[in-house]
TrEMBL record:
Name of the featured protein: Conserved hypothetical membrane protein, DUF6 family
Source organism superkingdom: Bacteria
Species for this entry: candidate division CPR2 bacterium GW2011_GWC1_41_48
Membrane listed as a keyword: yes
Transmembrane segments: 33-52, 64-81, 101-134, 146-164, 176-195, 207-227, 239-262, 274-292
């Protein structure tokens, strides 16, 4: 059962990636619009958690740290959306999967976790994947603006995961998650004032289509997270992590089909050479995640 749940969640996350790109090309003119919606939804979620669930009691210092982690949660999402605006989504998602590598590195630095030789091999496969995608030939690798935006998104994810891993020693998942969501909302408040004109203009221009799109995409995201969490509760975390990487193959498959048959929805480079490079990179990264897990 957990295998089915994991694969469905991976597929939904892939669809969500495609929707993000689709929305950014048509209705979302500024990433802050989507981030704003995400922040308000997160605040509402945090409220429901504190009202309806038995949350852990933690010290003020750790509560503030959990709220601060929301800064990294916001940065990871914002930078990902910025990258998706300027890069093919099938090139963005593989770089996002470097989060496993980043978490390992930061865990070894801050949590004194030790690498095994198997993990070193896994790290090699993880790192080489994105570079295959961005290589023009065997001698030349062209790292674009989209790559660096995605990479720094991954760095933010790494700090988010490692700090939460520390906090989970003292509180349950839902408590930490709720404080994180509050942190995201607090980050958005000053940015809302800065980008007020851009956000207002975006809603005025595409509001009729934008609002339903954001509601649908965020509902899909919640569903994917729920299925992923359910899979973890029923199966092995390491194996769920490996199977979740099928998201890479789903993204490549969906973008290829859409580009060939429905180019008005999404258009990417679908030459045999490019698709082969992306697929090879995805398979190598799947192996890397397996060795690390």
């Amino acid at each position: 059962m957990w295998i089915v749940l994991t694969l469905i969640s991976a597929f939904l996350f892939a669809v969500l990636n495609i929707l993000d790109k689709f929305g950014l090309e048509r209705w979302v003119k500024h990433p802050m619009v989507q981030a704003l919606f995400f922040g308000f939804l997160g605040l509402i979620t945090a409220g429901f958690i504190f009202i309806f669930k038995d949350t852990s009691s933690i010290s003020l210092g750790r509560a503030l740290l959990a709220i601060f982690v929301g800064v990294f949660a916001f940065l990871s999402g914002y930078l990902y959306l910025k990258a998706a605006m300027v890069e093919e989504i099938s090139r963005v998602v593989p770089v996002l999967r470097l989060d496993s590598f980043m978490v390992l590195v930061l865990s070894s630095i801050f949590l004194n976790e030790i690498f095994t030789s198997r993990r070193y091999v896994g790290i090699f496969f993880l790192i080489i994947g994105p570079f295959i995608i961005y290589s023009e030939n065997l001698r030349k690798i062209r790292l674009t603006k989209g790559f660096w935006l995605t990479f720094f998104s991954v760095v933010a994810v790494g700090f988010q995961y490692v700090l939460n891993k520390y906090l989970l020693r003292f509180a349950d998942f839902w408590t930490v998650f709720a404080y994180n969501r509050i942190g995201v909302f607090l980050v958005i408040i000053p940015l809302l004032l800065i980008y007020k004109k851009d956000i207002k203009s975006n809603f005025k221009e595409t509001g009729k289509a934008l609002t339903p799109f954001l509601i649908f995409s965020q509902t899909l995201a919640i569903g994917a997270v729920f299925l992923h969490t359910s899979a973890i509760s029923k199966g092995y975390v390491s194996l769920v992590s490996v199977l979740s990487s099928a998201q890479l193959l789903f993204v490549i498959g969906i973008t290829t089909v859409l580009s060939i048959f429905f180019p008005k929805i999404l258009k990417e480079n679908t030459s045999k050479k490019i698709v082969l490079k992306k697929t090879t990179a995805a398979v190598l990264m799947l192996v890397g995640v397996y060795l690390i897990s």
